[in-house]
Amino acid sequence: EVQLVQSGAEVKKPGESLRISCKTSGYSFTNNWIGWVRQTPGKGLEWMGIVYPGDSDTRYSPSFLGQVSISADKSTSTAYLQWRSLKASDSAMYYCARHFTGTTFVYFDYWGQGTLVTVSS
Amino acid sequence: SYELTQPPSVSVSPGQTARITCSGHALPKQYASWYQQKPGQAPILVIYKDTERPSGIPGRFSGATSGTTATLTISGVQAEDEADYHCQSADTKSPDSTNTYVIFGGGTKLTVL
Asked: Which residues on chain A are in Cβ contact (under 8 Å) with B46?
């Protein structure tokens, strides 16, 4: 059974750093892209980027490039989303999801349960 | 920038057919996918590659694309289908797909009256 289990909710102050995780099981972590999606009440779902754990190839949405870092640890089948300096506008629900892609298609077939990040002074 | 446009809300009575549209200029070249999201839950894939249904998704869910519009159809709507539905596709910047960006629509709230 494919499972993506995310780390728990976080409350942080502006300027602090944060790394949230997504531990996977039930499939070949190394050979599948895995991505992160942000959800805020006002803007719906937003694709942030993806990583291919096999070679750490990483792609970012232009909206998030330079704002976050996405990585993967093959030894623990875990993907990460990291911020160096949080802003209040980073407050949102974050989902990891397995990412299937081909020349003419892309979709997310399994999702984590979500990690709520709250940034407030 | 590329956008996918969905109606904010659709309402139907139980047993009727719900149709949710998603418009985008690249849909003739890139397949659409659809996700169901209930309050407090993660999205669930209900349609991928325009018309394919993952295992476990009821047969009343179907998808189609014509030109620049993808449509999710729910036949014989049930109360449990009340949820937000998000369409998703891609915007390929280069022929070898090295710069393929994922795009989501704004979401449609389906209300079962």
From this structure: none
Smallest Cβ–Cβ distance between A45 and the set B90, B99, B104 belongs to B104
Average pLDDT value for residue range A61-68? 92
Place of tokens 């998703």: B88
The Cα of A64 is separated from the nearest Cα of chain B by a number of Å equal to 12
pLDDT 10s digits, B5-53:
999 999 999 999 999 999 998 898 899 999 999 999 999 999 999 999 9
CA distance A110 to chain B (A): 7
Using CA atoms, how far apart are residues B29 and A42, in angstroms rounded to an integer? 29
pLDDT value of residue B96: 44
Q: Determine contact: B103 vs chain A, CB below 8 A.
A: yes
Task: Assess B35–A contact: CB distance below 8 Å, yes or no.
Answer: yes
Q: How confident is the model at residue A116 (pLDDT cuts 50, 70, 90)?
A: very high
Tokens encoding A93: 């629900």
